[in-house]
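We were asked to recover a plausible sequence for a given structure. The inputs and outputs are reproduced exactly as logged, with field labels preserved.

PROBLEM: sequence recovery
POSITIONS: 199
GIVEN STRUCTURE:
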């Protein structure tokens, strides 16, 4: 899977792809006359880690197809990545309605895909670093960007329940939230039927 890369990495990829295409093989020495040794290593590490190039057992590299690389940037990764987190969290608001209603109501589209997540105030720095390290845009309280992103809501304490191996605010809170607006009526009715009207 490919992820977004800084401009210097994209320029290096463009150069390598324009010279070798998708199937042509090359070595790091390809950039010897352009970059310092340390910058060359940094660029190849970045391109490998982010999925833009692949390495074979003989230290040759090939470029990922650009159409594949670009389309994968918008793939949803947050739900997979958050399972590796070491701090408490709980999906909240519309995100909890989505999860508890088995996505009968959904916020997801490749254009805009926000996740609302309660985190403890004392852990806010951890969460910002966690999402930054995983190349997932994140904001505190509000914000927006193209594709998938996290809205972190700092709280003093939080409750959560496990659903699909992730932490979500309790079902009763999600049902109350869904019940509060006609737009989410279908999701509310779905949860009421599935879980027996626990609200």
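RECOVERED SEQUENCE:
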């Amino acid at each position: 899977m490919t992820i977004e890369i800084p401009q210097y990495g994209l320029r290096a990829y463009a150069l390598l792809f324009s010279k070798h295409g998708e199937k042509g093989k090359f070595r790091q020495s390809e950039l010897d006359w352009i970059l310092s040794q340390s910058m060359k290593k940094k660029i190849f590490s970045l391109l490998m880690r982010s999925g833009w190039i692949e390495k074979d057992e003989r230290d040759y590299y090939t470029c990922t197809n650009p159409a594949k690389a670009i389309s994968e940037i918008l793939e949803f990764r947050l739900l997979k990545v958050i399972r590796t987190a070491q701090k408490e969290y709980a999906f909240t608001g519309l995100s909890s309605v989505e999860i508890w209603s088995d996505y009968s109501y959904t916020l997801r589209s490749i254009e805009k895909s926000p996740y609302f997540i309660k985190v403890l105030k004392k852990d806010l720095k951890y969460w910002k670093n966690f999402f930054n390290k995983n190349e997932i845009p994140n904001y505190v309280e509000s914000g927006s960007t193209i594709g998938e992103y996290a809205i972190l809501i700092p709280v003093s304490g939080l409750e959560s329940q496990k659903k699909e191996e992730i932490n979500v605010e309790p079902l009763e809170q999600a049902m109350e939230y869904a019940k509060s607006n006609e737009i989410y009526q279908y999701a509310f009715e779905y949860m009421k039927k599935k879980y027996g009207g626990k609200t």
